[in-house]
Specification:
- By secondary structure, this protein is mainly beta.
- The chain has one domain (3-345): Outer membrane protein (Lipocalin, Beta Barrel).
- Helices cover 12% and strands 43% of the residues.
- It is built from four helices and 13 strands.
- It has a twelve-stranded antiparallel beta barrel with strand order 1-2-3-4-5-6-8-9-10-11-12-13.
- A hairpin with a 2-residue loop joins β11 (300-312) and β12.
- It is globular.
């Protein structure tokens, strides 16, 4: 079955599941998340300069597998999804769309600079298959997109800079060329919950490991996140935009988003760190199928974040300061940016 056919079938299935509101389940609705990342929050305008993503995570499909109101073809779609086998695993699907924008360190320069990263924009859609229990979360994510002028990143950045009266980016004529993007990613998370999770003061540790293969990114990553706070969310943390980052859906009815006040309020701090071993990064190496400019990337990079999160009612809101090591040899300074996520869980 073609990937595009799978994506269409999954979208149709999730729509059918979302309208079956009468079916008994502790986790009736899905979770919608808006991600926005920008180096404006840290006073710069270069490198990874903007990322935006919207995502919807379905309710647990186990509860819909035998619902007679779903069409018969949905059974075959659910059975064919690459979920982790095993008892007591919730099975959810995420649908996402987003755009990432990358620019050189000097956006005022009009000519091509071979020592600076190229202009690049990626627009994409992705479907993720998540298997979760209280301790483990497995994610397979398939991404289709385009890099180059047809991503419309140039138009987006120029429009925003005009509205905000920011420095105008002059070098988009040298951006990477049009090329389709196809990536497959796998990520596994472990959650070790400490005392008082979702019931007072508590903490948890969430390590993870994963890999991506494709013409956009081929890499291996490992990392962890620690959270400390009051009525911690019963989920797998908050991550920047990257493969496997759709972690904001509640695991069960103990999550504060399913509680009445005052138990429906949560506040916590978190820190995280990740290490990436990159074999290929199209935004640094240049086009995969066509000749283009690029820079000599660093094969091993690290990224860390510190942030705050809050839950009130059905909303989960987080802000993080993200920084990391240099990504390419001629990069003058390491980059930092701010990351905001806003999630709403239907019930």
């Amino acid at each position: 079955m073609k990937i595009s056919t799978i994506i269409i079938a999954v979208i149709a299935l999730c729509f059918c599941a979302s309208v079956c509101t009468g079916y008994e389940s502790a986790l009736q609705g899905g979770t919608f998340t808006f991600y926005q990342e920008n180096d404006f929050y840290t006073g710069t305008d270069r490198d990874y300069t903007n990322g935006i993503k919207i995502s919807w995570i379905s309710p647990d499909l186990n509860h819909f597998r035998d619902d007679p109101r779903l069409p018969s073809w949905s059974h075959a779609v659910i059975d064919a999804m690459p979920f982790e086998a095993g008892e007591h695993f919730l099975k959810t699907v995420s649908l996402s769309a987003g755009q990432d924008i990358y620019t050189p360190e000097d956006i005022k320069r009009r000519d091509f600079n071979p020592d600076d990263r190229p202009y690049a924009g990626i627009s994409y859609i992705s479907v993720g298959f998540h298997s979760r229990n209280a301790r483990i979360m497995n994610t397979w994510e398939y991404t289709l997109g385009i890099i180059g002028p047809h991503s419309y990143a140039e138009k987006m950045q120029k429009a925003v800079h005009s509205l905000t009266n920011s420095d105008f980016p002059n070098g988009w004529d040298h951006q990477l060329k049009n090329e389709p993007i196809l990536n497959v990613s796998y990520d596994r998370k472990w959650r070790f919950a400490g005392k008082g999770v979702a019931t007072g003061l508590g903490y948890d540790l969430i390590p993870h490991a994963g890999c991506s293969v494709g013409n956009a990114l081929t890499a291996v990553t490992i990392g962890w996140q620690v959270r400390l706070g009051w009525n911690l969310p019963n989920d797998f943390g908050t991550l920047p935009i990257r493969p496997g980052s759709d972690t904001n859906a509640p695991l069960d009815g103990q999550d504060p988003r399913y509680q009445e006040q005052p138990n429906g309020f949560s506040i916590h701090a978190f820190i995280s760190a990740d290490v990436y071993a990159k074999l290929w990064d199209i935004t640094l190496d240049g086009n995969f199928f066509r000749s283009s400019g690029g820079v000599e990337k660093e094969p091993l990079v690290a990224e860390w974040a510190v942030g705050l999160g809050m839950i009130t009612g059905r909303f989960k809101i987080t802000y993080a300061y993200v920084s990391g090591t240099r990504e390419y040899e001629t990069q003058r300074e390491r980059q930092s940016y701010g990351a905001i996520t806003v999630s709403y869980t239907f019930r």
